[in-house]
Batch of 3 targets.
Target 1
Amino acid sequence: MRGNSFCAEVDKISLHIAYYFSALKNSVVYEPPLQEKKMQRKLTTRQAMEMILSEVNPCDSDGEDIELQPDSDSELSDLSSDEETAPQPKKRARLGTDLTETAKDGTVWREEQVGTRLPFTPIKAYAADGEPTAKARKSISSRLQSFLCFITLDMLHSIQEWTIQLFTSLSLAHKLLSRKTTILGTVNKIRREIPQSARHTDRNEFTTQVFSTTAATLTAYAPKRKKTVYILSSMHSVIQTENTTKRKPNTITLYNTTKCGVDVMDQMVREYTVRTGTRRWPVAVFYNMIDMAALNAHVLYQACTGRQERRVDFLLELARELANSHMCAKKARKEQLLRTQPSTPSPGKRAMCQVKHQCKNNHATVRCVHCYRYTWGKCRREIPWQCQDCE
C-alpha cells in the first residue's frame, strides 16, 4: 500500500511539473484543476520556476543545486520587459491653482465657469439700420467713388500683412477692436494662441469649456464625442448655454444664425468674379479683395444715389470708368513723350509713318504740327504740315 501511495505521489508531482513546463513557452501558468475549476494568471519565468520548486518534494532531488538563470537572451529580454513598470495613462492637462494657462505664443488664458461675467466689457455695436450717412450720400455720386471706398492703395501696399490676418485669430480680433469692430468666428485648434488644455478632442458630448483673455473669449464646444468646435469672440462678456438637450452656448447659436450672410456673399462673388488661375497667394488675395469691393460698391451706390441697377450692368460701367481713367492718363503720358521728341529724325535716318492713312508703313521725316506724329507726304494736308486726321 505504501508503494502504491508513493507512486501516486510521484505521478502527482510529475503532473504538476508537466503543467507548469508546458505553460512556460507562453509565460502563462495554468494551475492544476482544483474543485473542477481552472485558474489562469500571468507569471514571469522566475516566478514560475520558484513556484515549481516550492511544490517539489526535496526527497526526489539528486542533490545538485538548481540555479534560476535564463537559458537565452530572449528569456532575459522577456524577464526585463516583464519587470518594467507599465506606462501611466495620459491624463488631461490641468490648469494651475490660479486657473491660468500660457499658450505657445505667450497668450495668458483663464478658464471661466459657464454663465459667469467675464472681466471685460465689449464695445457697443453700431446701429442696425445699415443706411449710409448724410456725408456719404453727398460725396458718392459715381460708381468709381463707391468702389474706392472699399479698396485703397494702402490696402494693396500692405497686402502681405493682410494675407496673414485673413483667418480668425486673436491678433486680428485686437486689430479690429482698435477700429471699434468686433469679431465672431471659428478658430483652428492648431493655432499657437489656443491653450493646451483646450486642444483635447476626446470630450463628453454637449460639453462646453470657456477661456478668457484680454478683450476676447474662447469657447470649446463638443457637439459629438470626438469633435470639438472652437469659437473666438470679442463681443460676448457672458457665455451661457441653452436649456435644451444639446446645451449650445450663445456664441455657437449666434454664429450659426449669422454665418449665412458670409455664405450668400461668397455665392454672389463667385457669380461675377475677376479671379483667374494663379499660384501666387498674394495675387489670389488681391482678386478676392477686388470681388468683395465691387459687390459692396454696388450696394453702396444704390443706397446713396437711389438708382436701381443690375449688378452685371454696374460692373461693366465700373470697368469702363476704371479703364477710362487709366487710358486718359496713358494718353497724356504718350502725348508728353511725343512732344519731347525732335521735330525731325536724326540726319540720315527716317521714322515710320505713324498716321498710316494712305500709306503702307512708309517712312517719313516730318511730324504733324498738332499731334507730333511722323507723317508721310500722302498722309498730310497741304499747308501747314498737318496729318489728315487733324482738322
Target 2
Amino acid sequence: MVLSRAATESGENVCSTFGSRYVRTALPKHKIGESSIPKEAAYQIIKDELMLDGNPRLNLASFVTTWMEPECDKLIMESINKNYVDMDEYPVTTELQNRCVNMIARLFNAPLEETETAMGVGTVGSSEAIMLAGLAFKRNWQNKRKAEGKPYDKPNIVTGANVQVCWEKFARYFEVELKEVKLSEGYYVMDPDKAAEMVDENTICVAAILGSTLNGEFEDVKRLNDLLVKKNEETGWNTPIHVDAASGGFIAPFIYPELEWDFRLPLVKSINVSGHKYGLVYAGIGWVVWRTQQDLPDELIFHINYLGADQPTFTLNFSKGSSQIIAQYYQLIRLGFEGYKNVMENCRENMVVLREGIEKTERFNIVSKEVGVPLVAFSLKDHSFHNEFEISEMLRRFGWIVPAYTMPADAQHITVLRVVIREDFSRTLAERLVADIVKVLHELDTLPSKISKKMGAEDFGNVKGKKVDRDVLMEVIVGWRKFVKDRKKMNGVC
C-alpha cells in the first residue's frame, strides 16, 4: 500500500487530520478557497459534517431505495466514470439499457412479438420520464389537429389533484393547461368518472396514478379506460391514457397480477416507472415505455454523430452516468420475477404489521388502503390538544423521519403521517416504530397543548361565532405551520 503524506504551507507533513490546522479553519462557503488542503482533511471534514444528515435507512418519508447488495455497489463504483451518452464508446452499456427497456415493457404487457424491440428509454427519474411522455402526447395531438385543420394552441391534460409536482412542472414548462379532479374527504385519488367528464377535444391525455404519493392507493385505470373508450366512440376523439406507475409499476405485476392497469388496456399508450423506487436501485434511474413505436413521434427523436456513430436520443438532458442503468440490469437478472415477488410480499406483510400496531393504539384513523403501495398513512382521531406535526417532530428524537402533511385541494383540512415500507424495513423495525409512536403519544398526553402554549390568539385569528370542527382544525393546522416556520427561522434553518 502506498502511504501518502500531505504537506502544509510550511512544508511539514500532516500525519493526523485532527492534529492539523484544517479542523480549526473555517471552510469556504461562498467562494472557492485560495489554497488547497490535503485530501485526508477534505474527506474527514466533509464526512463529519454529513453525520448531521438523517439516516437514509430511517427516512420513512422516501420511496427511494436506500440499500443494495455489496456486489451491486461494486458494479456501480466500477462504472461510475462512464458517460451513458457515449453509446459508441460503451456499446455494452447501451445494450444493457435496451435489455432493461424490453424487460420492463413486457412486464407491463406491451403487445410485442417474442423478439420485437420495445420502444422506451432510461431517464434520471420519473419526472424526466413524465416530461418525455407528455411531450409525445402533446405532439401527437398537435399533428392530428393540424391534419384536421383545427386549432392546436390550447392543449390540456386531465389529472387528479393528488399528482406529484412533476405534472405541474410539465404543464407549466410546456404550456399545457392542467385540469385537476379535486379530492374529497375519504377519497384521495382521481375519480375516473369525474376525469372522463372533464375531457374535451383539446385533452392530450388523462394521467392515472398507480400508487398515489399521498396514501399509496392505485387509481382505477380499468374504469377510466372503459369510460374513455365509450366517450371516444361518441365524440370521435381519441383521448389516450398515460399511467404514472412511478411507485406501483414494480409492485402490481408481482403481487397484483390480476389487476388491469397496463398495456392490456387499449387506451394506455405510455407508462413511466421509477427504477430507484421499487425497482430497487439507488436514486437516479427512471423508465418510460410506449405501447408501440407509433406512439412516440419521430420528430422528437434527435440523431447525433459527433461521438463516433449515428446515435438516436430522446431525453431532456444529455450526459448522465451509466451506473444506475447497470444497477437496474443487475437487479432484474439477480432477482428475476421470483425475487421481486418475494421482496414485494415482504414489504406488504411488514406494512400489515405496522398498520395493525398503529390501529391497536386506538388513536389514529388509517387513511391508506390495503391494496396499493406498501405504506401506512394515518391521522389522529382527536386534534384537541396535539397534532400530527408534533408527532412527526418528536419521532425524530428516536431517529425516525416520518413526514406530516396536509392533503391537496378540497381535502386540505386532513393532515396525515405517512410511513413508506421499503425493502430494507424489517418487521423488527416496524415493531420498534410502533413502540416509539406509543412513547411519543404517552409523552404528549403528559404535556399541555403545545399549540395553546406557544401560540397567541393572533396566530389563530379572532373569529367570532360558533365554528364547525373543520374550521377549528384548519386554524390549528395554519397556526402550527406558522409556529414551525417561525421556529425554523430562529434556528437558521432554510
Target 3
Amino acid sequence: MGNALRFLCGKCFEPSAADSGSLGPHGVSSATVGVSALAHDLFQFDITSQVPEGLSNHVVSSKKAQANWYRKLVDAWRESKPPPKTPEEAARLVIQTLKRHQKADVEGLLAFYGLPLPHTLVEVAAQPPTSLPDGVKFEFHTLPVDAKAVADGDTVTVYVSTTDPRESAYVPGNVHAAAVQRSAARARRNYEQADALHQQIIDSGYRVIVHQNEEVLAKKYRIRLRGIDAPESAMPYGKEAKNELTKIVQGKSLRVLVYGEDRYGRYVGDLYCNGVFVQEMMLKKGLAWHYSAYDKRPELETWEKQARAKRVGLWASKNPEKPWEWRKDKREAR
C-alpha cells in the first residue's frame, strides 16, 4: 500500500473559500481533499483495521460490513496504477469495488468523503480533433490556468507564452522593450521601476508570469466557451458552474481552438484539457445550457438532453431560467 497512500495523505489541505459551501460530513469537499481523506483512512485501516468514526451515521450496514468494504478498497487502491488522483477517479474505484453492495451504503460512503455520487459521474465521448475543424481561425496552447482567471461557468482568461511561434511574431516592440527593461530593473533591485514597467506590459495585454521557476512573457486571451451558456454568477447554479469550470482547468495547460471574437472582445473557442472537451463536461454535469442560437452542433444538444434526463446540476430544478433570458430581463429593467 505504502507509497501511494502516503503520497496522497501528504497532499491533504484545507478547503478553499470557493469550496466552503460544498463540504461533506467528513469535513472535505469533492473539489479539494476527498481523495486525500479516503487515502488517509485506507492507510489507517491497513494499520489498525479500524473504520473512521462517524461513518455509521451515513451508511446502513454494520461496522463488520464496513471493515469488509475497507479491506476490499485497500486491495483495489493497491492494485490501481496509478492510484486515483481526482474525485471522479476515486468515486469510480469505490463504485466498481463495492458494486455488489447496497446502493445506500455505496452512496453513503461517497457522500462521507464528499466524492461524486454515481448519477453525477459522466463519461467523456468527444476526442480531441487531430486536424483543425472547419471554421477554426487558429489554435494555441496555454500556460497553466490560475483559478482566479475563471470568471464564470463559460468564460476564462488564459495566457500564452510569447515563445510560441505564432505569438513571437506579433509582440509589440514597446512590450518587448518594457520586458527587457523590467528584467534589468529587477536585477538592480529597483522594484518600483520594475513594477511600473510591468504595469505597462499589463496595459498592453501581456503579463510576465513565473512558470517552472522562470519568468515568461505571455499574451492575455479572454476565452468564451463556444456553444454553451452557463448560469450567470447571480443565478441559481452560477456558483456551482464557476466552481466546476475552475476544477476542470485549474493548474492545467489548455488547447484552445479559436473560431472568432464576440462583441465583448472575447475569443470564442473550444477548450480541451488533458484530452477532455471542456464544453462536454459542463453540459453533461448539468452546469450549462446548449447555446443553440449560436452553435448548432448536435452533440451539444445530445449532452444537454442527457443531463436533463438525469436531472443533474441545474436540471434538478423544475423550470430553470435560461441565462440569455435572465440577461435580457436585467437589461430591460434598467
